[in-house]
Design brief:
alpha/beta, globular, about 675 residues
Length: about 675
Amino acid sequence: MPELDLSQYAHDVVADIQATADAEGTTTPEAFTRRVFEDLERAGIVSNTFTAYHSAHGHLVHGYGIGDSGECLDLFVTDFDLDPLESKLTKGQAETAFRRLLTFVRRCREGLRQHIDESFDVYDMCAAVEKALTEVQRIRLFLLSNRVGTSTSFPPTEFDGLPVTHEVWDLARLHRHETSGSISEPIVVSFDPPLPCVSAPSSEPDHSVTMAVIPGQRLAELYGEYGTRLLELNVRSFLQARGSVNRGIRETLLNSPGRFLAYNNGITATASQVDFVHGPDGTPTGIARVHGLQVVNGGQTTASLHYSSSRDKADLSHVAVQMKLTEVSPERLSEIVPMISEYSNTQNRVTLVDFSSNHAYHVAVQRITRSLWAPATDGSGQETHWFYERARGQYTDEVAKARTPAKQRTFKKLNPTSRKFTKADLAKYVNSWSLLPFSVSRGAQKNFVAFMDRIGEAPPRVDVRYCQRVIAMAVLFKAVDRVAANHEAGSYKSVITTYTMARLALATEQRIDLDRIWREQRVSSALEAAIDDLCPRVMRVVTKPREGNHVGEWAKKPACWDAVSRVPWSVPDALKAELRDHPLDDEALAGGAEGDRGASDEVTSVPADEWYAIERWAKETHNLDPSQRQLAQYVGRRLELGQEVPEPQAVQALHARNEAFSLGFVPGP
C-alpha cells in the first residue's frame, strides 16, 4: 500500500477506533487494545490475548496473554490519545507504565484476586497471572500507544528470577508496519560459527538455493525466541504432537537423536538476503547471517524440536536438521513462496494459497462486494457498500487514492467504516452461524485457519446471494454484540456474542431469514427481542467455567459449547412466525459446492449410535479435532431427534467420519 503520512495515519487510527468503540459500545482504549491485539496475533507475536482493565494505586493493566506453549506471560498497558500528535510519549511515561504493569504482576503473586469479586473479568486475569507465574519461563511487558514515543528501547529486567522484556508499540512503529504490509520485524539470524553449506548455481535472477545443515538446538532456540513469527509464510503452525508425523519426530528426538538427520525430511526456508562466508576461490562455504528468515515447510519439525527440548528435556546436542534455504527477491516473495511451500511439502497436506489473501475465495468475495450495493434504510435513498478488506490496509489505501478531502468524504459516505470487515471478521461471522463458537473464541488467527480448512474441504459457491447472506450474518452478529454490551458483558463480550449467535442458530435450525436481514440491513424487532432474552442465559453458562478454567480458556473448549447448546430456551412465537421453512443449506452457505448435495442424505443413512460411538472413540484415543468430536455428537443428537442435518455440517461430518475410519475407528455390531 502507498506510504501514508504519519499525521494522516494518526487521524485514521483515531477515526477508526472511535467508530469501532461507538459501534461496539466500548471505550476507545479497549477498542485500540483489541485492534493492536489482532495485529500482534496475526503476526504470531502474541496469542491467547484478553482485554481486562484494572487500575488501582500503583498499578494499571489493560490486558494479558499466555502463549500457546505456556512458556510466556504477556501483560499489556494502553496509552490512547484522541489528539496523538499534540504530545509525545516520553521515556519517563513509558517507564512508569512498565513499572505499573510489574507492580500488578507482584500484587497478583501476593493474592490480589482474593480482593476482587469473582464475577468480574479482572478476577480471571489475576487468577491466570498468579497461576502463570508458577509455570512460565519469561514475562513480556507491552506498552501500546497511538502517540510517538521518544524512547522505544528498554533494557531487560527480572522478576523473581524470570527474565522480563519490554516492548513499546507506538504510533511510529504501528505506522511503519502498516505501510510496509507486515506487522512483524524481519527475523535476522547470525550463525557463529557459520553453517557449512553448498550453494547451487541458478539461472533465475530472482532466487538462489543453498543446502545446509543446522544444529537442532539452534533451530529449537529460534522457535523459542520468535514463535510462530518464524512460520508467518507457512500455512500451519504446530499441530501439537497428535499427528503421526509429530509423534515420530518426538520419538526420534528422545530415543534416536543421532538418526534425526536420516529420518527427517528437514525444513525449507526462505530469506530476503543471505550473507555468506566465501572460500579462496570465491565459492560460498558457509552461512554467516540470514535476513528475513522464514520456515515455509517444516513448521512441525521446528516446533517439535522446541517442545521436545523444553517440555521433554530432550538432549538436542546430537540432532542435525537439513535445510534448503532459498534467497528470494522481496518483490517476488508473495509469488514464489506459495509454490515452494506447496511443492516441497511431504509431511502433512499443505496449501499455502488457501490461507493467502490471494485465494480465489477471498478474491471472489472482494470482487462481488465492491459492486454490491446495500439497500438504503435510513430514508435518504443513498445505497452503500460493505467494504471487504481482503488485505490489511485496503480501506486506507482507497481513502488515500481519493486525493481531495471532498472525494475522501464521498468515499467514506459510500463505504462507511462501520461497514468495513476483514477476513478475520468474515470467518468470525460464518463460524458463529455454523455452530463453532469455541473456534471463534480461540482468537482471530486460529479461527481464520479453521475457517479456511472448512473452505478447503467444502468450497462454497461465492456469488451475489452468498455475499448478501454473509453480510446478513455480519448484521446479525453486530446486533447480538450490541445486546451483549447492554447486558454488561464487559471484556467477555466477544465470547458472549459468538456463543449467543451460535445458540440462536442452533435453536432456529439456521432458519433465520438472512435474505430479509440483507434487504432491511437490520434485525427485526422480534429477532432482537429473542436475542435480548437469550443472551443473559448464555452469559450465565459461559461466565461460570468448569474444570478450573478461567472464562477465556473455558470458551475455547467444545465442552463450553456443549453446555451452552443445552441451555433451556425456546424460540419465541413472534420469531417463529418469521423463520424460513427450511435452513439455508441448499446454497452451500458455509461450505459445500454443487456436487455435495447428497451429504445430508448420506449422513442420515448412518445410525445415530455410530455418530455417538465416533465421539466416544475420539475422546478416548485423542484423535480428531475437538470440533470434529463435537460435530459427531451434534449429528447424532439431530438424527436421534429426527431432525435434518444442514448440508454444511453434513459435509464436515462425513469428512470427520472418513478420517476416523482411516485412524482405526471400528463401528460396533
